[in-house]
Specification:
Helices cover 42% and strands 37% of the residues. It has 161 residues and is of the alpha+beta class. The chain has an eight-stranded antiparallel β-sheet, with helices on both faces. The longest helix has 34 residues.
Length: 161
């Protein structure tokens, strides 16, 4: 009789821990979605933030987002483009945080003058994983999930406004 009680208690504890784990995962998803809110059109974001972004014509856009409440982020197949006002403290924090994370990996940086802009490329195995620059009142980030040829990245940068 006591073995049945012990087994019933173990099953109850297991069920409670599984349900607690599921509740905890929902909280994580909620927190993540607050960082980047998705919109149906780029025009909605541009009206809300009161600035616009021009992206390269040949990318396949997957999503438009407001990132950290004040940046336009365009997700495309294999990467993202982000534009935010340079006087924004969150912009500085997010760029520094990303750079610190990259510095822990096996990457190098290289800065090139492209037109009037100084563009900093983060390279991993000679492929561009990220490019950052400032133009006027805005800072830009172009990120590639799997790395990209530098010439392609430069072509994209030339088209982004």
């Amino acid at each position: 009789m006591s073995k049945k009680i012990i087994i019933a208690i173990c099953v109850a504890i297991l069920a409670l821990s599984v349900s607690f784990s599921a509740c905890h995962k929902e909280e994580e998803v909620t927190t993540t979605t607050e960082i980047a809110k998705r919109y149906d059109t780029l025009e909605e974001i541009e009206r809300k933030l009161d600035f616009s972004i021009k992206v390269p014509k040949d990318i396949r856009v997957e999503a438009y987002q407001i990132y950290r409440e004040n940046a336009i982020q365009v997700i495309f197949d294999g990467g993202y483009i982000r534009k935010e006002k340079t006087n924004n403290q969150d912009a500085t924090y997010s760029t520094e945080t990303e750079t610190q994370a990259e510095n822990k990996s096996e990457s190098t940086t290289e800065t090139l003058a492209l037109g009037e802009n100084q563009v900093t490329f983060t390279l991993t195995d000679d492929a561009v994983s990220k490019a950052t620059w400032t133009s006027g009142d805005y800072s830009y980030t172009l990120g590639f999930l799997f790395g990209e040829n530098k010439d392609v990245a430069i072509q994209y940068i030339d088209e982004i406004e």
